[in-house]
Amino acid sequence: MSTTNGRVRDEEPNVATSFSGLAHDVIELGELQAQLFVHDVKSTTQKTRTSLLLGVVGTCVLLGSVPVLLFALAELFVEQFGWSRSAGFAVAAVIGIVASAALLAAAWNRLSVGLNSMQRSRDELKLTAK
Predict the structure, then answer these.
(1) What pLDDT, on the 0 to 100 scale, is given for residue 98?
(2) What's the pLDDT tens digit per position in 66-94?
(3) How many domains is the chain built from?
(4) CB 40 within 8 A of CB 120
(5) SS in 3 state form for the chain?
(6) What is the mean pLDDT of residues 21-30?
(7) Strand partners, 52
């Protein structure tokens, strides 16, 4: 009888037994990695749900009501400042682009924070690949 890694064996291990144990450990590690990945996906989904919703709402607002607001703003520039119609519409368009860029930047920021929760799975995968 011999003792190996805290296990008591009746006989010396052979190559087939060692390979079988190694295969079992690899399968178990793969199952644990899969469980960690599933947990990380659930966590990422919860964290990114708000950012995706913000992105959708921001896009809907931009496509639905913002053009009307920009037309009104352009007309305001024409009436109040005596600008030409093309200058008023150009400035209103620039304002619209800046506003939409700010909304999309906020959505991207929230999305990237949520996706960083997958870091544990990436780190564990790198460690097991070495």
Answers:
(1) 93
(2) 789 899 999 999 999 999 999 999 999 99
(3) 1
(4) yes
(5) CEEECCEEECCCCCHHHHHHHHHHHHHHHHHHHHHHHHHHHHHHHHHHHHHHHHHHHHHHHHHHCHHHHHHHHHHHHHHHHCCCHHHHHHHHHHHHHHHHHHHHHHHHHHHHHHHHHHHHHHHHHHHHHC
(6) 87
(7) none
Show the domain range for 39: 2-129
Given the structure tokens 């929760």, which residue do they identify? Answer: 117
Q: How many CA atoms lie within 13 A of 14 on its CB side?
A: 2
pLDDT at position 113 is: 79
Rounded Cα distance between 57 and 42, Å, is: 23
Look up tokens 């909304």; give the residue: 103
For residue 58, what are its two tokens?
A: 């921001």
Is-contact 97 55, C-beta < 8 A?
A: no
